[in-house]
Amino acid sequence: MKFHHQITKLILTSILFVLFASISNNILAQDGKSLFMKNCASCHALDKKLTGPALMGVEDRWKGNRKNLHAWIKNTGSYMKTSNDAYAIALYNEYGKSAMNVFDGVLDDKQIDDILDYIKKGPEVKVAANGDAGEKPESDNTLLFGILTLILAVVAFTLMQVNSNLKKLSDDKEGIPAAEPVVFWKNRTYIAFGIILLVIIGGYLTAKGAIGLGRNKGYVPEQPIFYSHKVHAGINQINCQYCHGGVNDSKHANIPSVNVCMNCHMAINEYKGTAKLYNEEGEEVNGTAEIQKLYKYANYTPGKPFDASKATAIPWTKIHNLPDHVYFNHSQHVVAGKQQCQTCHGEITKMDEVKQFADLSMGWCINCHRETKVQFKENGFYSIYQKYHDDLKSGKMDSTKGVTVEKIGGTECQKCHY
Amino acid sequence: MKKLYFISSLFVVLAITSCSDNGDRNPHNIYMPDMAYSRAYETYAYRDSATFTQSESERGQKIFYNNAPVVGTISRGEEMPFPLAKDANGDTTNYYASKSIKNPIDTLTEKQLVEVERQYLINCGICHGSKLDGNGPLYKGGEGPFAAKPATLVGDARYEAMPDGQMFYSVAYGKNLMGSYASQLSRKQRWEIIAYIKAKQKEAKASAAPAASAAATAVVKK
Lengths: 418, 222
Prior knowledge:
Order of helices and strands of chain A: HHHHHHHHHHHHEEHHHHHH
Number of helices of chain B: 8
Number of helices of chain A: 18
Oligomer: heterodimer
CATH class of the domain at 93-210 in chain B: Mainly Alpha
Largest sheet of chain A: 2 strands, antiparallel
Largest sheet of chain B: 2 strands, parallel
Number of strands of chain A: 2
Largest interface: A-B, 63 and 59 residues
Strand order of the largest sheet of chain A: 1-2
Order of helices and strands of chain B: HHEEHHHHHH
Strand content of chain B: under 5%
Structural class of chain A: mainly alpha
Number of domains of chain A: 6
Distance between the termini of chain B: 113 Å
Radius of gyration of chain B: 28 Å
CATH superfamily of the domain at 93-210 in chain B: Cytochrome c-like domain
Distance between the termini of chain A: 103 Å
């Protein structure tokens, strides 16, 4: 019995030991990729110069000498002091004489070897997804329909003419006296009908054109750089206020300066998205070439440090313009009014090129001020409207209808015109 | 005569309809251009270089205006300027000296925290992740367009030990592939965001510690 007990104990401990060993082994054999991601990826990529050099083929460049490479990785500074490696010195000078972080005590030899093995092997080749994400804008069929209508109208007139001629023939045969058929462009009924039609259509178009004077709905200017809001704000989920932070405390939603572009484009120098880019004419645009245009304005050469003081401004074309006699303030609408950008600018996250979404007419402004409810609660800006707060509380004012912008003076002339 | 009248009126109609609002590359016709396009100097308005200058050297000959606040002034509610300048290329003296500079904001009120978190998500979260794990939508574990791994602000001992001042240096002047955020965030906002990051780091440590000690006790019991 006692013997049995000992055997089970032995088996149990051995099983435990094996288990433990396998687990610890697993931890030790962390794959190089995760180590690379954790320790190297913030400055190095495999195929691209970032803060440090691209690491693909690093061992060949070091002539396969892992010992030197280990010493360099662990402490670049002391390696430089102890050895006269010409390649290392050149590399150090090329990258602005800034040493790499010290990895002595962070990574052991085994881990460095794992990372080097990972670099040698390279990343798994990803199968490119069959991207048909970019849909081509639909073409306009208005012209085709117009021509069709014209042809049908001519056919109808000819048939009517034929009809009256035939009637005349049959009347002659039966001996009924009939007048000579009038050609349709001399027929008074037709002329009167035509004039009425012309007045109606002409009047409509004149009124529409006159109302549209000075309005720019649908205006899509060609910008100096094809900047796609769809890629930035839509696909990459960059918040509007990352670039247009001025909406928080200014009348203007500021246009970002070049250094804001370069925050990301120092590292992103090519467009690799699956969504294809199309301009307003439906032509495909090369995203990488557009980034190169940015580099020209920024005076930036990839691999060299970016100096914001040498950048030149990009002459963007202003799209949304209000006449001089209208005052509009972004911060009032975004911070106090808690409006979304899309309310006035449309679905910006789906636009490759920005198009003016609203006509920015006075009727459009007033209409929104009449309909929009102000967020009254938990909004410091409206805390002084004591009467409305009291009325809302006592039920004198219908809280489901709420307080519209009009009620707090949003349609007064001098709110916007002064 | 009658014919001429008819044709000319048709042309007027056509001319007016041609300025109706169809989407196009050029701005549409305007009734009074002097009113529509401001004559007053608005933000981003084009300034004639014959009259205006942005360079100090031409001061006196032309109207000098460069949009910058007067030197030595601090706007209301703003924090004091950072005492260290940006290092020259390859130099790291000020980067290390910045370690000693204290954060003027130690604690954030509940109300501040909401606004600071919003600012963090707008300006930092895009790379450093909404969970501060260095995996924002631009990086996406290496899948995104941004090639370099952003710093793991919570869960990496290096950044947990990094003093506030050094973080401020990196945010204000940029570090490695991160650009300067001085134009996007005011000094106060920068310090507040750093305070937010430090609070999040502390929070993560506090929640990790009881779990670790619980695991330790469990082992002991076995």
